[in-house]
Amino acid sequence: MAFLELNDLHRSFGAVKALNGIHIGLGEGEFLSLLGPSGCGKTTALRLVAGFDHPDGGRIIVDGRDVTRVSPNKRGMGMVFQAYSLFPNMTAAANVEFGLRIRRKGKEDRRKRVLDLLELVGLGHAAHRYPHQLSGGMQQRVALARALAIEPRVLLLDEPLSALDAKVRVQLREEIRRIQLELGITTLYVTHDQEEALAISDHVAVMYGGVIEQMGTPSEMYTAPATPFVAEFIGTMNRLEGTIVDAATGEVEHGSRRFRLAAARGRRNGERVLVLIRPETLEVSAAVNGDGDHNTVRGEIITHTFLGPVTRVKLASNGTMFTADMPPARAAALPVGSNVSVQVPVEGPQLLSLGDDAPVSAGLAEEDQ
Question: Which of 96, 147, 149, 151 is deepest in the core (most CB within 10 A)?
């Protein structure tokens, strides 16, 4: 049974439907990230759960209790905002203690709780510093400790790392996950950063246009996107539109080429499909004579982009663009302008149905969103 439930939530602002009937069930102690571009409805959903806004329809259930119309201070939610929102005239310890003072906890209980939480977030040494004496990452740790001080039933985080530099973001997201697992607290996390969501979540819900396009584990979202939007938004993806011409052998026609793909076997001849191929699954090598078997095509390398562990290459092949990830040493041996062979794997590529009337166009390698 779900600990946190969002049942058919709707919210409109004038003619804009921010949420159009979303459903979420999150087990106790689980971590769910709401992932999507700006304006997709993820922050609206978080505000409804927090009680800062009310839905036009639907219910919010926490541990079997309907809290849809319950005031924010009675919901048992802990909130961490993007902009820290610390009291500038209070020390780190006083900021963490604030919620406990409001709830009239005893002085000794407050003191112990504050010290424990500051140690938990690695700031035991900074208890008497003011916000202006702390770095952005340290301020966000104080904000997290303050949210946890009241022992919330659900922890809500609204893009808490977006104002930090890249290295601090990685460090702090790992700390957030460590603390969440240590405390076993049910957590709802809003982000537009796909890497962040995949790295720390038990489940990810990709939102677009006020609806949830797909919800699943990080692995499921990456390896088996359910819609074209999810395929574009999660990672980099080669997208080739085509038609199944032989479902028995798994042949898919794209332009003048035919690819043999395991995912096409057993489907319907004539079905329009979107073939999804991750860059790391493509094998690129120096060109050989001819195109070879069904899944080998020739092309020319257009660009190199060094990404550290891999080099991302773009290559053109008869009007179709491919993106492939290669070890840097191998990529260096194939400079821009090289003629190469590209091997598309039989196993691995995913297929999404486009419907019989969908137009067939040149494939595109979609960049990270």
Answer: 96
H-state helical runs in the chain: 42-50, 92-102, 107-120, 136-149, 166-183, 194-200, 218-223, 228-233, 328-332
- Side-chain-side CA neighbours of residue 146 (13 Å): 27
Q: What is the DSSP string of 166-186?
A: HHHHHHHHHHHHHHHHHHT-E
Please name each of the domains of the chain with its CATH number: 4-228 (3.40.50.300), 236-357 (2.40.50.100)
Give the predicted TM-score (pTM) of the model.
0.87
Nearest to 297 by CA among 254, 263, 344, 260: 344
202-to-107, 186, 222 alpha-carbon distances in Å:
37, 11, 13
Number of neighbouring beta carbons within 10 Å of residue 336: 12
Angle between helices 166-183 and 136-149 (to 10 degrees): 20
For residue 219, the tally of other CB atoms under 10 A from its CB is 10
Q: Mention every residue, 6+ apart, whose C-beta is less than 8 A from residue 172.
A: 137, 140, 141, 160, 161, 164
Q: Is residue 62 within 8 Å of 4, Cβ to Cβ? A: yes
Tell me if residue 145 falls in helix, strand or coil.
Answer: helix
Class of residue 357 by CB neighbours under 10 A (exposed 0-12, middle 13-18, buried 19+) = exposed
Q: Is the pLDDT of residue 362 over 70?
A: no
Residue 338 is given by DSSP the state -
> Strand, coil or helix: what is 62?
strand
Distance CA 363, CA 273 (A): 12
Give the mean pLDDT of 267-284.
95
Q: Both tokens of residue 19?
A: 């949420």
Give 108's contacts (C-beta < 8 A, 6+ positions apart).
Answer: none
- What is the number of other CB atoms lying within 10 angstroms of the CB of residue 111? 14
> Which DSSP state fits 134?
S
Q: How far is CA 251 from the centre of its chain?
A: 32
Bridge partners of residue 313, in order along the sequence: 304, 324
What pLDDT band is residue 125 in, cutting at 50, 70 and 90?
very high
